[in-house]
Amino acid sequence: xxxxxxxxxxxxxxxxxxxxxxxxxxxxxxxxxxxxxxxxxxxxxxxxxxxxxxxxxxxxxxxxxxxxxxxxxxxxxxxxxxx
Length: 83
What we know:
Oligomer: single chain
Order of helices and strands: EEHEEEE
Mean pLDDT: 92
Low-confidence stretches: none
Radius of gyration: 12 Å
Organism: Oceanirhabdus seepicola
Protein name: TIGR04076 family protein
Shape: globular
Helix content: 10-25%
Distance between the termini: 11 Å
Strand content: 35-45%
InterPro entries: CHP04076
Number of domains: 1
Number of helices: 1
């Protein structure tokens, strides 16, 4: 089963949950991240964990970038990794 690595690229998190450079590996359980952010990115993670790919600019790729629903304060990237 693929794994998805989540990396915080930018952070101005009001709750101080996330700092730039934080990373998490997702296999089948939600990592300890903000639940609003998790709910936003989960559909993309689910797609990647099930061997799908996503729109990424002008291409299809096994990665994504998304901003937090709290006014975009956190930018997170997800990508399939072999660890």
